[in-house]
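Hi C.,

You asked whether I'd gotten around to modeling the 234-residue construct. I have! Everything is below, sequence then structure, no commentary in between.
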Amino acid sequence: MHAWRQAATALVADLTHVFGDRLRSVVAYGAHIEGNEQAPITCLALVDSLGLDDLDACARLASRWERLHLATPLILSSEEFTRSLDAFPLEYGEIIRAHERVFGGDPFDDVPVSREDLRRACETQIKSHLVHLREGYIESGGRPLAIADLVAASAPAFAALLRNVARLNGSTSPNRADVTREGARAAGISDGLVGDIIGLEYKPAIPMTDAARLFPAYLAAVEQLARVVDTWRS
């Protein structure tokens, strides 16, 4: 059994103690189950109802979960989940792309994410990212180390943007690196730049000067993404 699954199984036991038969399903998702063992183990739990007493009980377990390398689980009522798909299409889309069922049924069976909701959310996220990069560059004062920090810190978000664009174009691949490159190709962004960005996402110890030199191409790539999503049609 994978170490993450042992921790997730322990989480299920804890949540069962809190919610009893109100616990409907638990899935693990995110960077850890895709190979980044430094990332915390993230899980989504769906329940029939969620009250303050439940939150108090979960709060008492928070330190135990931290010791197990578990992030605080995302706990939603089943109704909240189904009614918020249109509000969080990117977040749920990323979970749908690569997740592992740990307990109960798969909450994503027969639960579609609207392509138009996804496009609109992509546009908002990409344009926000673009604004953030421009502001961060100005605030850096042109200092290479500050620019490198900006590039490295924002690399995971950029990779996620590419995966979202891939899903917008119909990708169903569960492989994190593959779907990131699919999004880049759909937007006309070079594989070389994407490889560098993926390297930053998984190897934060990359020399800072390398990260700083990426900035012009990186900024241009985000501008290209914004144009592609702005004019996307199904």
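If it helps when you're writing up: The longest helix spans residues 115-140.

Thanks,
B.
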